[in-house]
């Protein structure tokens, strides 16, 4: 399946999931997420879920419960140059909606960290394939960011759907996931 076809199809499929079903699937994804090997994870980059994305808040709560010293970072995207930076947050960090409607930490109170300092990235996606390649929203923010991360950074996707056979129009800049978690199971690549 081509990325453009996948974006259209899975955007539609996600919007059709009833709210109560999404809540149930979020719980199942959390159960599978708890099976991840989280040893030596000190800093995690995650995202604030929009609309019908998998809710990342329970995952963050679980990781902080397991390791209260864990640093949690969220992205701030710059659409003018197609880049993003990770910023560490705390309970006092305020979040604001960007011009694009994305919930991000307030840049005035945010502390940026280099990509090399991140141990795990929870990567947003619309769908993924059996080889761990994801289809995102088409702007390439995460692939560009991950190109600067350590080679051993753990990349985790979250999806309400099982994988497609193959993203046919992959390119050399696409960064595959290490894991993708669905309500049914955890995929390891």
TrEMBL record:
Nucleus in keyword set: no
Gene Ontology molecular function, alphabetical: 5-formyltetrahydrofolate cyclo-ligase activity
Sequence intervals crossing the membrane: none
Keyword flag Nucleotidyltransferase: no
Short name of any one Pfam family annotated for the protein: 5-FTHF_cyc-lig
EC number from the UniProt entry: 6.3.3.2
Catalytic activity field: (6S)-5-formyl-5,6,7,8-tetrahydrofolate + ATP = (6R)-5,10-methenyltetrahydrofolate + ADP + phosphate
Keyword list, A-Z: ATP-binding, Ligase, Magnesium, Metal-binding, Nucleotide-binding
Gene3D superfamilies for this protein: NagB/RpiA/CoA transferase-like (3.40.50.10420)
InterPro entries (UniProt xref): FTHF_cligase, FTHF_cligase-like_sf, NagB/RpiA_transferase-like
Listed cofactors: Mg(2+)
Taxonomy, superkingdom: Bacteria
Similarity-based family: Belongs to the 5-formyltetrahydrofolate cyclo-ligase family.
Entry protein name: 5-formyltetrahydrofolate cyclo-ligase
Provenance organism: Niabella digestorum
């Amino acid at each position: 399946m081509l990325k453009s076809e996948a974006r259209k199809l899975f955007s539609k499929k996600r919007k059709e999931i009833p709210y109560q079903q999404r809540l149930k699937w979020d719980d199942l994804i959390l159960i599978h997420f708890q099976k991840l090997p989280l040893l030596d994870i000190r800093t995690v980059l995650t995202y604030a879920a929009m609309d019908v994305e998998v809710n990342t808040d329970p995952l963050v709560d679980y990781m902080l419960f397991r390791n209260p010293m864990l640093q949690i970072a969220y992205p701030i995207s710059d659409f003018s140059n197609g880049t993003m930076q990770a910023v560490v947050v705390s309970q006092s960090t305020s979040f604001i909606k960007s011009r694009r409607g994305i919930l991000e930490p307030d840049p005035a109170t945010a502390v940026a960290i280099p990509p090399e300092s991140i141990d795990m990235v929870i990567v947003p996606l619309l769908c993924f394939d059996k080889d761990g390649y994801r289809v995102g929203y088409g702007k390439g923010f995460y692939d560009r960011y991950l190109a600067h991360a350590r080679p051993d950074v753990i990349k985790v996707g979250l999806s309400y759907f099982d994988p497609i056979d193959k993203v046919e129009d992959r390119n050399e800049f696409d960064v595959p996931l290490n894991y993708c978690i669905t309500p049914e199971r955890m995929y390891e690549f």
